């Protein structure tokens, strides 16, 4: 058994006396496709739905109760409270250093007790299909050029402080933002434009083909014109899990 840990919902597994059990099997996302059978035609026609599906990543832990610590049942309740939630949360692991899953737990963890000191705990994490790179999750100044070293386009979260009409240009495509009052966020991943999450500014955006600005693999050029005092982003570098 090798000692390793995960981080989730603001805590790490070793806080609950858990160590990942090996061997560890990584699960990977499936492409969402539809196979269409046509009478008289050999073989199915494949139609891509242009997306990857969520997948369930099980993690099996060994729980060793320290001497004079709470009972295994009490620790089990703490574990269930730890992973409970109704939204996605970053899931990190020593096994994927530098990246994180976006996951939630919909089914309660299972615990199999061996004796009053040892138990096996299994947690099923429902994960989005892409891993997020940790160095793309912090706010940073937007450069004039940036290299996306991943094989997939990044969908950044952009933040601009300014007023009036502004134009964000990415790789020669102009994304217009008209009538800005103080600040605006452009969330390319979720296809949202807002001042706050409860204050939409979608009506101010004029985007080419209604697409949001992304950073394609390789070199990207970025510029912003208009009256602004701040321009930052979270690049959201990503790869397929």
TrEMBL record:
Q: Native species of this protein?
A: Schleiferilactobacillus perolens DSM 12744
Recorded protein name is Tail protein
Q: Which Gene3D superfamilies does its entry note? A: 2.40.30.200
